[in-house]
Amino acid sequence: MKLMERTYRYLKAHCPAIPSLRLVPPVILNEYFGGGYGVPIPQGTHAAGEFKEKEKITLEETYTAKTAAAVLEHCRRYGSDEGPVLYWHTLNSVDLSSRAREVSPQDLPAALRGFVEKT
Predict the structure, then answer these.
(1) How confident is the prediction for the chain on average, in pLDDT?
(2) pTM of the predicted model, to two decimals?
(3) DSSP E strands: which ranges in 1-119?
């Protein structure tokens, strides 16, 4: 929770256009650990396939795939009842610079366009 609060304060200080938010403690879903550290689970393998097919995002079969499985389950369970869901894919060694250069701000949802400048 402290990291979320610090990150929000940092972002808000650097971009006042970010709306005021009421941060709530994160929900930890323990059922996606599976067989242990570094061991794939069927839900993760399925989620990796969905992300690849629908979003062209490649996930490795353990850590990010398990997280994606939890996100997909949350979305299936709650839909839009709880508001937007953010899956922030971080700590990836894949260089997406060339792909990012191909995206125009006009291709993004309207709410995100103001945060991106085409260089």
Answers:
(1) 83
(2) 0.58
(3) none
The span from the CA of 110 to the CA of 105, in Å, is 9
pLDDT bracket for residue 60 (50, 70, 90) = confident
Give the residue among 74, 72, 76, 119 at the shortest CA–CA distance from 100. Answer: 119
Cα pseudo-dihedral 81, 87, 88, 93, rounded to 10: 180
Is the dihedral angle over the CA atoms 98, 101, 105, 107 positive or is it negative?
negative
Helix (H) or strand (E) holding 48: helix 42-55
The pair of structure tokens assigned to 93 is 């060694």
Domains of the chain, residue spans = 34-113
